[in-house]
Specification:
about 50% helix, eight-stranded mixed sheet, globular, 2 domains, alpha/beta, 6-phosphogluconate dehydrogenase C-terminal fold, 8 strands
């Protein structure tokens, strides 16, 4: 049955989801964005079928919240206040504890599913939206015990169609682990870029001498500050914990180099090579 979908936030994730929902389900997708230029571009690119305002949530069968994480908790409450009893509401932010706490006592909490599709690029805005962004990636659903079976089944059917593998996790644990494997990598990329810009004043030298290693490591520094600043603050405690550990390791590595301790350097890097086995799905 053809359904009406409201996607609030038409950036990379929201826009890419809109494209996939139209492709796989042939649902009618209405776009909502506080940035009029983004809304216009999303319509021009065919990402959404129509542009609407917040009132569309009252008649929507599915509402997708794809806004910065500092806005998502309050927006989720506003949406749940307005949606019909059969509607599905899910967010796609990379922090989950705050939004789950915010909606936990809402009378329509069962309509809400806390979702984190781990997919993305360093690009932002509706022009960054692409097909197949989610293929083969992991999707996390948090605190599923608070969502109805109908809401969960519908959500799973959506992300299965997007070729994602879904796992379930407690929202507190999610935010702790995602700080280590995602948020910290963005911080390190931003700070690597900042350090190079500060120490190498000649842009041409950066361009000429940057190899594929530097380019891949600093790629995330091209990500949207508007999106990532709230993420770091929303997940502050976990981010700070991971940063402290990272700084400790950097300091220790610096000391090994200063001491010309090639044995310790070799051992540290060799032990760290195990990450490739994990990322290749190999377990010892």
């Amino acid at each position: 049955m053809k359904q009406k979908v409201a996607v609030i936030g038409l950036g990379l994730i929201g826009g890419s989801l809109a494209l996939e929902l139209k492709k796989h389900f042939a649902w009618t997708v209405f776009g909502v964005d506080s940035n009029a230029a983004h809304a216009k571009k999303a319509l021009e690119l065919g990402i959404v079928d129509e542009i609407s305002d917040f009132s569309i949530v009252k008649s929507a069968d599915v509402v997708v919240l794809a806004v910065p994480v500092n806005y998502a908790p309050e927006l989720a409450l506003q949406v749940l206040d307005e949606v019909k009893d059969s509607a599905l509401v899910f967010d796609v932010g990379s922090t989950k504890e705050n939004i789950c706490k915010k909606v936990v006592k809402h009378s329509k909490r069962v309509n809400f599913v806390a979702v984190h599709p781990i997919a993305g690029t360093e690009f932002s805005g509706p022009q960054a939206a692409i097909f197949n962004l989610f293929d083969g990636k992991v999707n996390i659903i948090c605190d599923r015990e608070f969502s109805s079976e109908a809401s969960l089944e519908k959500t799973l059917s959506i992300f299965e169609a997007l070729q994602m593998r879904t796992i379930f996790m407690n929202s507190t644990e999610h935010d702790k682990h995602i700080a280590y494997v995602s948020h910290l990598s963005h911080i390190s990329s931003f700070m690597l870029g900042k350090t190079v810009l500060e120490m190498e004043k000649e842009a041409q030298n950066i361009f000429d001498m940057a190899g594929s290693g530097f380019e891949s490591t600093v790629r995330l520094a091209k990500s949207s500050p508007k999106m990532w600043s709230p993420i770091f603050v929303e997940n502050k405690e976990n981010v700070l914990t991971s940063l402290e550990a990272f700084i400790k390791n950097l300091s220790a590595f610096r000391d090994m180099i200063a001491a010309e301790d090639t044995v310790a350097l070799h051992q540290t890097m060799q032990e760290t090579n195990y990450i490739k086995e994990i990322l290749n799905g190999i377990k010892k």
